[in-house]
Every structure is written in structure tokens, then in C-alpha cells.
UniProtKB/TrEMBL annotation:
The lineage of its organism: Bacteria, Bacillati, Actinomycetota, Actinomycetes, Kitasatosporales. It comes from the Bacteria. SUPFAM superfamilies: Terpenoid synthases. Pfam families: Terpene_syn_C_2. Its cofactor is Mg(2+). Belongs to the terpene synthase family. 2-methylisoborneol synthase subfamily. Keywords: Lyase, Magnesium, Metal-binding. It comes from Streptomyces thioluteus. This is Terpene synthase.
């Protein structure tokens, strides 16, 4: 059986990933990740074996580096993003923290195949609005009892509720009364300048899933429930950066078809990458979450609790989980790139680039590194 016919096999699993790895080792090896037409290469994507933890206590992770660093572009996106946050009213009184967190830099690092500040800004608005949903409705201090009541209207802000005429104006007024809803709606409006309807539908789907996960976390929080490790990992796939990663093509100025995005093999690879990116958040945000009241949800804490190990061991095991996900993505994305469209190749490269930019941002952002 040829390599190509094996590549069209049904949904990949771990054993298939191993088979692909073995096959690729025998073949002239394709690039570790597919290269986009803008020259995103893998030469910069060298990964290094695990080393001693850095000063922030996060172990060396198997992850590409950021594929570009353009501080001026990041600053421009960040300045415009903070202005927008002020306009829509999110993080009132806390905009200095938002500026310092530097989400504009995250967009610049994570989307190296676009140097258009307005496209990066559109993606940044979506990310910040999704973050605000979490910060306002879910995180420390929020009332879990109100979570569902908040998330329904928040979703309706991005997938408009079409009410009978006599109620429509009143509903619009209600949407405008909550800054998170205003932010979500405004962000989607901006993105629609660049995204095709299918890409917007994709984003709405990913955000709906994210909100389901917010509800799940709220349920854990209100019951004081510590999830099992698999339960937590399945949760982190849906409470993840996938809504951000899903914009790789819209930001890059091309469109992956719904059929390829929805291909179970693509879905598997991309969701594993999204989980890995979010575990990076877990590792870097532990310190920030440590001061919060109630149950802490991050993989090291869950592992330490459920597997009865030390906090340091929880961190090490989390890093291993992260690395396995990234390695699996790397192998499966390389295989998928052999048979997919040029858009899929570029998208998979974009996801890889997102991983590198995400890690670089987390390691430097004051959101996770303040004294
Ligand atoms: C930008 C985006 C899609 C965010 C949604 C999910 C989310 C808030 C994270 C993946 C970050 O997780 P966490 O709740 O731990 O966030 P912080 O550590 O508070 O930044």
C-alpha cells in the first residue's frame, strides 16, 4: 500500500500516528510542518530537548519558537486594541493591565503570515472579547449561579437573536447594556470584513463550544469538584484557544474549506494543538491563579491532586502531556499536508506558528509574569 493511500485512511488515532511516524522516517521526510506560500518555513521551528526549568519554573517545552518578532507591529495592534477595549467598555478601570498584557503582541507573534495590522486587530478583538467573557463571567469573583444567564445572551451577541419587531429594539438595548456582549458583537463585525461566511460560522461554532466549557467549569467551581485528569484534558480541548487558532486562514487572507476544516483527521490534529496551546496557559498562569479563592483548575494542580504527587511532579507530567500533543500534531499535520489542498498545508503551518507565538507570548506577558 502506498504512503498516499494510507494517508486517506479513516480518522487517525495514536497507533495511526505511530504508523505515520514510522512511514515518514522511511520516506524522504516532508518538512516537519507544511510551508505556506509566504515562506513560513520550518528551519526556524527547531525544537530542543527538555532542559532544566527556566526561571519562571516552567519546564522546557517541545514547541516551535515564534516565527517572527516585529515589536513595532505588535505595539500598533496593541495600542489599537486597548483603544477599542475602552470604546466598547470592557475592563473599565483596568485598561493599564490590558495594555501591559500585550494581546497585540500575541497576535503579532501567533500570526506571522500577516503583517496587516487591521487583520491582526480583528483577531485580537475576538480573542480579547473571548477572554473578557471568561474574566467577567467565570473567573474569581464571578457568581457561578449567573453564568448560564450571562452566556446565553453573550452567544446571541455573535449569532444575533432575531426577535419579532415589537421586542427587537428592547433586545438591542439589553445587548448594549453589557460590555462583554458589546465587545463580542463588535469583534465579529470587524472580523466579517475579512472572513467568509463559512469562516464566521466556524468561529461561532468554536465560541459556542467554548461557552459550553465555561459552563462546565462553573459547575465544577460551584460544587467544589476536582475533575479527573482525563475529564480535565477533555475539558481543556473545548476550553481552549481553538477560537483563536481557527482564524489562522482569515488572518492570513485565504480560506480553508469547511470540508477540510471539518475532516476528522484535521480536527484531531488541530484540537490536539489547541489543547497543547492551552496547557501552556495552564503552566504559565499557575502563579496568577494561586492567589484566587476556591478550586484551581490547571493541569498541574489536577494531576497533583488526582495522581497524589508533588506540585513539581504535576508540572513535569503536564509538560510531558503537552509535548506528546505537540509531537502528535507535528507528525499528523505533516502527513495531512501530503494529501491536502494548498490551503490546508498553509493552515496547518499557521497552527504550528500559532503554537510558537503563543508560547513566546505566555513566557513574556506580564499577565502571567508579574512579580
Ligand atoms: C482567547 C480565548 C479563546 C480564551 C478562551 C479560553 C481561555 C480564557 C483560555 C484558554 C485561558 O485560560 P484561563 O481561563 O486559565 O485564562 P487566564 O489564565 O486567566 O489567562
Amino acid at each position: 500500500m502506498s504512503l498516499l493511500s494510507r494517508m486517506t485512511a479513516p480518522t487517525a488515532r495514536h497507533d495511526v500516528a505511530q504508523l505515520v511516524a514510522a512511514l515518514l522516517a522511511e520516506q524522504p521526510r516532508p518538512r516537519a510542518v507544511p510551508t505556506g506560500p509566504t515562506g513560513l518555513g520550518t528551519s526556524a521551528a527547531r525544537v530542543t530537548p527538555r532542559r532544566e526549568p527556566s526561571s519562571d519554573g516552567v519546564p522546557e517545552l517541545y514547541c516551535p519558537p515564534a516565527l517572527r518578532d516585529d515589536p513595532a507591529l505588535g505595539r500598533e495592534v496593541n495600542d489599537r486594541l486597548v483603544d477599542w477595549a475602552g470604546e466598547v467598555g470592557i475592563y473599565e478601570g483596568r485598561l493599564d493591565h490590558v495594555r501591559a498584557a500585550d494581546f497585540g503582541r500575541l497576535m503579532m507573534l501567533a500570526h506571522p503570515d500577516s503583517d496587516d495590522p487591521d487583520r491582526l486587530l480583528a483577531a485580537g478583538k475576538c480573542a480579547l472579547a473571548e477572554w473578557a467573557t471568561d474574566d467577567y463571567y467565570c473567573d474569581d469573583g464571578a457568581d457561578p449561579e449567573q453564568l448560564g444567564s450571562h452566556l446565553g445572551p453573550a452567544y446571541a451577541a455573535i449569532d444575533p437573536a432575531h426577535l419579532p419587531l415589537r421586542y427587537a429594539a428592547a433586545w438591542q438595548k439589553e445587548v448594549r447594556e453589557d460590555p462583554v456582549r458589546v465587545a463580542l458583537r463588535s469583534a465579529l463585525e470587524h472580523l466579517s470584513r475579512y472572513a467568509e461566511p463559512s469562516q464566521l460560522a466556524r468561529l461561532r461554532h468554536e465560541v459556542a463550544v467554548l461557552f459550553v466549557a465555561y459552563g462546565q467549569e462553573g459547575s465544577w467551581r460551584s460544587r467544589g469538584h476536582m475533575p479527573t485528569v482525563p475529564e480535565y484534558l477533555a475539558h481543556r480541548q473545548i476550553n481552549s484557544f481553538l477560537p483563536c487558532i481557527a482564524l489562522a486562514d482569515a488572518v492570513g487572507g485565504y480560506a480553508l474549506t469547511a470540508a477540510e476544516y471539518g475532516d476528522p483527521r484535521v480536527r484531531r490534529a488541530v484540537t490536539m494543538a489547541a489543547t497543547a496551546a492551552t496547557l501552556v496557559n495552564d503552566l504559565y498562569s499557575m502563579t496568577k491563579e494561586h492567589g484566587t479563592s476556591g478550586v484551581e483548575f490547571n493541569l498541574p494542580t489536577v494531576i497533583a491532586d488526582r495522581e497524589r504527587c508533588s506540585p513539581r511532579e504535576g508540572i513535569e507530567r503536564s509538560a510531558e502531556v503537552h509535548d506528546e500533543l505537540v509531537r502528535t500534531y507535528e507528525v499528523e499535520a505533516a502527513a495531512l499536508a501530503l494529501t491536502g489542498s494548498p490551503q490546508l498545508r498553509r493552515f496547518l503551518a499557521g497552527v504550528w506558528a500559532w503554537l510558537g507565538g503563543n508560547r513566546a507570548w505566555h513566557s513574556g506577558s506580564p499577565r502571567y509574569n508579574s512579580a
